[in-house]
Amino acid sequence: MSGYRIHRPGERINRQKPLSFIFDNVQYKAFSGDTLASALLANGVRLIGRSFKYGRPRGIVGFGAEEPNALIQLETGAHTVPDLKATQVELYQGLLAGSTTGYPSLDFDLKGLLGKFGRFMPPGFYYKTFMEPVKAWPFYEKFIRKAAGYGRAPVEADPESYDHLHHHIDVLVVGGGAAGLWAATLAGRAGLKTLLVDEQAEMGGWLLTERRSRIDGLSGMDWVGQRLAELASLPNVTVLPRTTAFALHDLNLVQAVELLQDHLPLTERNAALPRQRLHKIRAHQVILASGAIERPLVFGYNDVPGVMTAAAGHSYLNRYGVAVGREVLVQTQNDAAYEAALDLALSGVKVTLADARQGGAAAWRQQALKNAGAELLLGHGIAKVLGDKSVTGAQLVKLDGRNNQVIGSGPRLSVDTVLSSGGLTSTVHLFCHNGGRPVWNQQQLSFVCPDEGRENIACVGAITGRWELSDALSQTHAAVAALLLGHGRGSSGKAPAVAHEEVAAPRAIFRLPDGKPEGHGAKAFVDYQNDVAAADIHTAIRENYRSIEHVKRYTALGFGTDQGKLSNINGFAIAAEALGKPIAEVGTTTYRPSYTPVTFGALAGPHVGETFDPRRYTAIHASHDARKAEYEVVGQWLRPWYFPKAGEDLHAAVNRECLATRNSVGVMDASTLGKIDVKGPDAREFLNRIYSNAWSKLDPGKCRYGLMLDENGMVMDDGVTACLADDHFHMTTTTGGAARVYSWLERWHQTEWPELKVRFTTTTDHWATVAVVGPNSRKVLQKLCTDIDFDKEAFKFMDGRTGTVAGLPARVFRISFSGELAYEINVDANYGRYMWEEVMKAGAEFDITPYGTETMHVLRAEKGFIIVGQDTDGSMSPNDLAMSWAVGMKKPFSFLGKRSLLRSHTAGDGRKQLVGLLPLDPKVVLAEGAQILSNTDDTVPAAMQGHVTSSYHSAFLGRSIAMAVLKDGSKREGDTVFVWAHGKSVPAQVVSSVFVDKEGVRQHA
Amino acid sequence: MANRYSLWSLIKNGLKHHESWQPAWKSPQPKKNYDVIIVGGGGHGLATAYYLAKEHGIKNVAVLEKGYLGGGNTARNTTIIRSNYLWDEAAHLYEHGLKLWEGLSQDLNFNVMFSQRGVMNVGHTLQDMRDIERRANANLLNGVDAVVMTPQEIKDMVPLIDISHRTRYPIMGASFQPRGGVARHDAVAWGFARGASELGVDIIEQCEVTGLIIEGGRIKGVNTSRGDIMADRVGCVAAGNSSVLAKMAGLRLPLESHPLQAFVSESMKPCIDTVVMSNAVHGYVSQSDKGELVIGAGIDSYLGYGQRGSPHVIEHTAAAIIEMFPSFSRVRMNRQWGGIVDVSPDACPIISKTRIKGLYFNCGWGTGGFKATPGSGNVFAHTIAHDDPHPLNRAFSLDRFATGHLIDEHGAAAVAH
Amino acid sequence: MLVITCPYCQEAREEEEFSYAGEAYIARPAVPEEVDDATWGDYVFHRKNPRGWHWEQWQHVAGCRKVFAVKRHTVSYEIAGSWTLADGKALYLEEQA
């Protein structure tokens, strides 16, 4: 035998395709079809990581999803991925990987030195120390954090993409082993829309490893080939390899992630295609055929590199042509591991098999093994493994036949590898994700899925504890035939024929005894990834952490990225022994998604970057771009914030925009305001109920400002609503509140007042709205419109007209959010940009000035107009806003929120009310969000009186102004208060919040 | 303390193969009578019992837990601790809790691994920034530490965050509470259990309360799966079951119980040294001492006691995290789970007497309960011991839903935390 | 993720098409001014919040935008049925009786 490669019939690697890869800066050779783990083993690499707590040397233990140790960093830079299991990484040409633990190096690890004091680090030791001195904890923690953790988080943005695909199907089969393939075949033959997923690159499950069985007279993989050919021929069947079903949710929603390009060299990946795809599968029927995973036995120093599961040793041999050692000790308590021992022995490896059972396996197996030249030691167990960074031998002991006691010493063997098998553990995870409970099977020594499955979930094969292929396939056939019958379909074909083989019962042993009390001998690991030893479980229980959840949480058993696939049952069994209870009574911890880790990118799918959330633009956006607007994000909208001219900052631009508007004319895109068409004979009554003010007397052609309260009496939205006809209203809402108000109207109408004849249509996107604002706005409108009389008396403030503006049908409202003479023109959104440009042209002679939200805010603050969400926060009633004029307490119907206004606290004194503030120094602009104090010498905690909600420099007034809410503010006009922000306070006078044109002359002009 | 924990105790017990450790708490058979029964063996309930015994000398106390200690939201939260609440009442209550956290490991002689690495709330809009300023100033004047940060300061502290304008919702700034942080959630329950047990409190696991015994408007005891247990005072502090318990007393509560989901990544080397939260994109992330990214978001919309939610919520949360941390796209989710949160109308708790004499409720912590654990237990113990609220929880009584005196933290807490 | 049948569209659809709209059949006091603060507060804020079957409202926001009644179990999340608000109310009242 040269190196560790051995030619095996049926191996799954392609010797015609040699590859090279780099691990920890060393180049190695491999073959196409290898995993990183098989390639490393083939090259004799054993030490692959350091353990979490003690820094102990660790090597590869498993060959798939169960691997606890071999967590590697794949690739570098933007393509790097932390914490992949080497056993699941398909090798490609040029692959670059490295170990994730060991400081300063994997070979020489400081934590490993500290780990020599492991006896002083029982479970939960950090709960018991690091408490003194108090201030030192951050230092301790820094060290603890540094010592923990595996891979390094990527630093660069992910260059690859992900997508989502939805399926609505009849049958989902999870697992492409013998049972899953047969289940899919039957479902497919019955004409059901069927999807088969398997996490591996190749279908076949255990048949990829196991070579002796014959199914219907064919070798295992020939039968798999036959199945796949048949499935490919059925148009109603889809087969997805490299696809892991990782979560099962209510109503058979299964999430599965497909690795589309991870197996390709970086240079060969197609950037146009996703790296991974998340399948969201709704299946009427789920068939779980996820098999079982072999667990190791627990014995002293069972974590030395070179100790693996028997199934792993077997798989590396038969699938990848890798002998994991030259002198191998196989330790078992069941028959299955004899198969691994036999294949190794037949391949020229020197094999010793120790069986914890006095009688050993079925006689024919023992004979076959002896014939192959292997040595057999019955009634023996490993007391401890010898070696540090690699196995050098093992000390065995003789075991009592019934009690787990040592009855004598055994041989000390010189071996380079130890394989152990503690029996199989059914992969019940998906079954349990949303409430299913596995049951303990004392014959098979595993928690298994019940034969009857759950509603619309069938369980077939090894997941039910049927370890023998013949049993698994006949149970699969019967179960699937029954469920097809339930779906009104017959099944065609007979169950595949597999010869039944005699099997001896396994021994119920999990922890091999070493003759010493637990905790006195060599550490025997249960959970490799979290360094949980058998003694730790005993200690936890001694300290009264007796619930299995407490054992798990106190020791960290099963918390790793392997999710306890190897460790859980051993841990439960050891806990059961310590508690003196049967395992079934101890139960399991909760199985949670995901079965194996899933990339955040796959979860997010396409909803990242620009498509994280829709971005809404108004119809006029291109015009704003052309005028170099800066934008503000408001909800999903992008609104012009200000329009800087060359060299202007925000303040310069806003000052110019404000003055231009107050002195001549400005123009603003108001299209984002929510608009709802309210129509019907009871529309008016509906408005009476939904708004706090009265709508009974609003004539067609008139507009009114309305306040909307929630049932708690607090202001939730506001806006101007125009009466178009007696039964027809054009409602506007805030930009951010549009969707909420629309649902609000619908829900009250449908749930509470269905008798009202009214309907609602959201028209926000249908209208483009251009506000023309300022003393010259009338002249601009007159130039654009011939069929509306803009005369001061004919078209008054708060009037609305329909007509033609710039040749377009339009609704024109004379409303003002600035206190100026102003008109809002609404036209079909498709003509919005045209309208805007026409207004710009018509206004050119008045130097019409486009302005954005910032100027809008200043103009409205000069008038004391509120912005819901800025000057209110969900705790402001109309009275608090000095807007009791907008509350029709005498309206016959008790409008929404009215009753709440009468509650003792809401109607009482001491509430905060909206006021204006003038800083005594007119050059000082108060900080928005600053708090208000009555005295400068208030000490912390200070009696805060309110806060500044809006604050600006008013170019028009040539000074700063602010709006604020202030305790009992309505009674405090003239007071001086102190406005406090970040340690500095500024005096300001309480004034009316109307700073400009208190009489309203300008807007009525 | 009989079995005091220290480095010395570790060495001593290590030499004895860890065979001499005493139970962290005792598990006695329930007695027939107690002075006070606490229903719910989570962090809040155990803390209540601990402070009843320690500060009020009431030691004849039973804590009844239907499952295992700390198995509810204590086991299921994302461990964020902060006190930077907007309104005075809330800020004072949570700050009381934060101060207790700061000495808790020493007080309990149990390291709860309270890590004051700071909590950052990032803002993405001008209004977010106004709200951040308002809250920070209010915090400072309430004696709560607060800093407002620029994008560059955020980037300096959290190098992996994206502060560029390439994102859908660019980051404009943040508020930061340096004294905030995270703790080891399970340890809090165990530490309080050990402390309470040491003071004489009976901790009874696997004991489900099935009914409340009320006579003439007074509480007399509880029916349990282990028989009737009598007490003149009963404090209910069982998040996720508050409405169910209230119904046993014929009471209605202003609560809705929703699923709240969270997930962790695989364990990685330290890459984020604080807690980053965003209300606007709906996600928050910190890194546990073990190296996992701990991630959460908003609640599921519907009522649910199933301890599970809908996967699209998790998918959206992953997207939100990638929005802020584009490199985390290649990090993998290891495990996800769900809890049940009792959401109140004003996002503030209810710590209150009820119209039944001797029956008290502590509930409605929504998504923010973990951070309050010691503070909640402390004031609830006072409320029970004196049959009168502590000044810090007077405002959190049930009657605020009649008078309208809500403490509306919604504006400050649109996202779960 | 729930699958909800809209009684108007007569189609079963993923939860993402719908919006939860709270407990169903909460009675708004007919004359709010005639009830005391506590009664009003009970209507505005207090909820049944049962661990078990729950009558609730969902709105088909990405569909017909109708609000309808669903009877759903809050632990198993099983849905017993969905009805128009009017049809559901009769069943609801029958159950309450």
What does this structure look like?
The complex is a heterotrimer of chains A (1005), B (417) and C (97). Chain A is 21% helix and 28% strand. Chain A is α+β, with helices and mostly antiparallel strands and 1005 residues long. The mean pLDDT of chain A is 96. Chain B is α/β, with parallel strands linked by helices and 417 residues long. Chain B has 10 helices and 18 strands. In chain B, α2 (43-56) links the parallel β1 (33-39) and β2. Residues 412-417 of chain B have low confidence and may be disordered. Chain C has one domain: Folate-binding fold (2-Layer Sandwich), CATH 3.30.2270.10. A 4-stranded antiparallel sheet of chain C has the order 3-4-5-6, with helices on one face. In chain C, a hairpin with a 5-residue loop joins β5 (67-73) and β6 (79-84). The longest helix of chain C is centred in the C-terminal third of the chain and has 12 residues, at 85-96. Chain C is globular, with a radius of gyration of 15 Å. Chain C starts with a strand and ends with a helix. Chains A and B meet through β6, α3, α11, α12 and β31 of A and α1, α3, α4, α6 and β12 of B. β31 of chain A pairs antiparallel with β16 of chain B. Chain C: Keywords: Oxidoreductase.
Helix content of chain C: 10-25%
N- and C-termini, Cα separation of chain B: 35 Å
Tertiary shape of chain B: globular
CATH architecture call of chain C:
2-Layer Sandwich
Radius of gyration of chain B: 21 Å
Q: What is the makeup of the main sheet of chain B?
A: 8 strands, mixed
Number of helices of chain C: 2
How many individual β-strands of chain B? 18
Strand content of chain C: 25-35%
CATH fold naming of chain C: Folate-binding fold
Content-based structural category of chain B: alpha/beta
Average pLDDT taken over every residue of chain B: 95
Rounded to the nearest angstrom, the distance between the terminal CA atoms of chain C is 32 Å
- The number of distinct structural domains of chain C comes to 1
List SSEs of chain C in N-to-C order: EEEHEEEH
Largest sheet of chain C: 4 strands, antiparallel
EC number (chain C): 1.5.3.1
InterPro entries (chain C): SoxD, SoxD_sf
Pfam families (chain C): SoxD
Keywords (chain C): Oxidoreductase
